[in-house]
Amino acid sequence: MKTALGFAVAAIVFAVLALAPFYLDAYGIGLMIGMTGYVTLASAWGLFSGRTGYVSLATVAFFGMGAYTVAVLNETLPYPVILLVAGAIGLLVAAVVGFSTLRLAGVYFVIFTFGLAELIRQLVTWFETTVTGTLGRYIFLPIGPEHIYWQLLVLCAATLLITWWVGRSRLGLALRVISDDEVVASHIGIDIARTKLALFAVSAVIITLVGAIQAPRWTYVEPAIVFNPTVSFLTLIMALLGGASRLWGPALGAIPLFLLFEWLSANFPNHYSILLGLLFIVIVFLLPRGVAGFAEDLMRRRPGGTPAPAKPAPTPLRSEGGEARP
Amino acid sequence: MTTVTRRRALRYFGMSVALGAVIAALPSAAQDRTSVKIGYAISKTGPNSGGAGITTLPNYVLWVKEVNDAGGLEMPDGKKLPIEVIEYDDRSSAEEVVRSIERLATQDKVDFILPPWGTGFNLAVAPLFDRFGYPQLAVSAVTDKAPEFVKRWKKSYWLLGGGHDYTSALAGLLTEAAGDGTINKKIAMISVADGFGIDLVTAARPSFKDAGFEVVYDVTYPAGTTDFTPMINEAAGSGADTFVAFSYPPETFAITQQAQVAKFNPKILYLGVGTGFPVYGEKNGANAEGIMSLGGIDPKNEANVAYRKRHQDVTGQAPDLWGSVITYNSLQMLQEAIKRRGLDRDAVADELSNGTFQTVLGEVKLEDNQLRKLWFGGQWQNGQFVAVAPVDREGAAPAILPKPAWK
Q1: Burial of A314 (0-12, 13-18, 19+ CB in 10 A)
Q2: Is residue A94 part of a domain?
Q3: How far is CA A319 from the centre of its chain?
Q4: Burial (0-12, 13-18, 19+ Cβ within 10 Å), B47
Q5: Residue A278 carries which DSSP code?
Q6: Distance separating alpha carbons of residues A259 and A123, to the nearest angstrom
Q7: Predicted confidence band at A277 (pLDDT cuts at 50, 70, 90)?
Q8: Between β-strands B356-359 and B384-389, what pairing exists: parallel, antiparallel or unpaired?
Q9: Where are the alpha helices (DSSP H) in B133-248?
Q10: How far A151 CA sits from the closest chain B CA (Å)?
């Protein structure tokens, strides 16, 4: 009953959001595109990193691959096929990368994923310079901002649906054990590598599609533009602020932060970075468990009037290496 | 708990509707206009801020200050309206620059938008300028596809030429030098594996081939390379009299230093972006003598000399010797077009396409929305970065060949 209600509310919210382009001007649609894009990115990031505790900085690697796929193929293939190809490429790369690296733990994984983004960027650059002899590529597709927005909205809904499903499935249960203790998980017969890989791949495909869908907005694509590491960092910050391991957590982080960035850059273009840095410090001090965690604390405190017991976050993100592992 | 009654809420609602209607009606009262809103989004932070902070932003600042000090932009009826600037930082992000332009056009409803810095960003915003009907005077965008873009976006203007223009001008200069036996017909060439280097080297290969030159050494290096000794040694051993590096500023400075250490003194030394920065001349002093690059200025052009002095006085830094003056020229064109045709963007665009302008470059008339009369090659001569190519353009100084020995 509760689930059905949740679905009904979510469906209404998305239906209302889908009507937004009929009421908003170009800037409003642009704002909605950016926001939906980041909600999707942060949710997809949380789907893997929030549940396994593996902090990934490879977001922009997949995002950029998606955008580049569109740039390379936009004159040869019909658009829906390009999206399929982009998704397939994302899946393939995620599988290869996942197989070889998901055994890395903690900070090693963080460093590797950060390097991966740079590696792919350099590979694309190398290929373009030595094989095709050009770097910038043009995307002239008849896709208006409202189409981009609708596509992103569908992808966003799909991401949340997948996240919801994962949370209830055996996979989700397995993940909860893995994130608590990998040794125990392997002892009770959970195939750790396969579980993590599956989730990494799903998350990567979604991120690749976000890049592919947004690319027609830029007309011109080159590695420096699409492999901008800021995307990885912003996604991570948004998901952490909201609460990476919860269904609505990343959205709760992405929406206010995105609007805040927008407000800051519109009103304080010269002090943006300073204000942002200060804000992050404040957020970390006030909301160490994210918006979703904070909300839960509040809920718990309200009925009984007693403060919630100091309990560690359900899935603490590993910032240190896997030194405890044998 | 409910302190907001429905009646009160309704009253606020009514008030806000009325207020909204008043605000919405304001911009339409054109005769009461007290300023001209000009907006731009520029990379103040991030990887593009270096280039934007040298070629583009200081000129926007200088121009706005000069116009406002003189009372404002002159309208066709002689009335002067001060410029009100709306400025955003695109943080070197493509998505950000796109949204900033959308904000300028639909939220701030500015009268004119000045373009961002860089080829990629100018292309990213071109469809928006077109859709919202703003003329786009793209300066810091070197592209061979300008004729195509002009067809696609009728109000776009491309003022810095394409890679092919620069390389064929260089080929023309080399041909002349080879013709009188100063240099042989071999070229050693390196380029940065990034936008600028790739564009230029892709244009250079056919340019040199058509001119009958042989490229005996041709490698690319990743941006951020610091050690050029192996490349310099191989270039020195290749037997070429001409060494060309399509490099970015940090590498341009490094190559200059390392060529001196390696005692590599080719008869023609042509380096990339950064050679035309005033600091390059200051830092290298007498050793800059004879080094060539893109751009260059005509020191006999008094308007340009005066502009350089004002730029230094107002912004505290000297303009670069390639794109800066073109940027300033584009703003003067806009100013003059507004003076002739008013604030109607279609009329201004028409004037920019067809009008003739007196600017800091002299007499300027665009051909097919492009500035074709440009200096494509310059050389450090006696502490100045003098225009030497195209060799057949009036005002080109004769190049000093071969390059003097390192001091």
Answers
A1: middle
A2: yes
A3: 18
A4: middle
A5: H
A6: 34
A7: confident
A8: unpaired
A9: 146-152, 163-179, 195-210, 229-237
A10: 17
Where is A28: in which H helix or E strand?
A: helix A26-45
Q: How far is CA B263 from the centre of its chain?
A: 34
Q: CB–CB of B242/B182 below 8 Å?
A: no
Measure CB to CB from residue B44 to each of A125, A128, A270 and give the nearest one. A270
- Pairing state of beta strands B112-114 and B36-42? parallel
B336: confidence class by pLDDT, cuts 50, 70, 90: very high
Write out residues 74-133 of A within 8 Å (CB-CB) of B: 122, 125-126, 128-130, 133
pLDDT tens digits, residue range B13-63? 555 555 554 445 444 444 568 999 999 999 988 878 888 999 999 999 999
What per-residue confidence (pLDDT) applies to B157?
A: 96
For A283, the token pair is: 């957020």
A183: alpha, beta or left? (left if phi > 0; alpha if psi -120 to 50): alpha
> HEC string of A164-223?
HHHHHCHHHHHHHHHHHCHHHHHHCCCCHHHHHHHHHHHHHHHHHHHHHHHHHHCCEECH
Asked if B367 and B101 touch (Cβ cutoff 8 Å), the reply is no
Q: Is the pLDDT of residue B291 over 50?
A: yes
Q: How many domains does chain A have?
A: 1
User: Which residues constitute the domain of residue A155?
Assistant: 9-230
Per-residue pLDDT reduced to its tens digit, A21-37: 998 888 899 999 999 99
The backbone torsions φ and ψ at residue B123, rounded to the nearest 5 degrees and listed phi first, read -75, -35
Cβ contact, residue pair B120, A224, below 8 Å: yes
ipTM confidence: 0.77
- B192-229 tens-digit pLDDT: 887 788 889 989 999 999 999 999 999 999 888 999 99
Residues of chain A found within 8 Å of residue B91, distances taken between Cβ atoms: 230, 265, 272
DSSP bridge pairs for B156: B136
**Minimal Cβ distance to A133: which of B46, B124, B202:** B202
Residue B405: is its pLDDT beyond 50? yes
> Is the residue at A34 inside a domain?
yes
Chain B residues whose beta carbon lies within 8 Å of the beta carbon of residue A136:
119-120, 123, 195, 199
Structure tokens at B322: 């390639």
Q: Which two tokens stand for residue A281?
A: 């410090």
- How far, in Å, CA of B406 to CA of B261, rounded? 10
Q: Using CA atoms, how far apart are residues B60 and B54, in angstroms rounded to an integer? A: 11
Q: Is residue A267 part of a domain?
A: no
Cβ contact A143:A33 at 8 Å: no
Q: Is A4 a member of any domain?
A: no
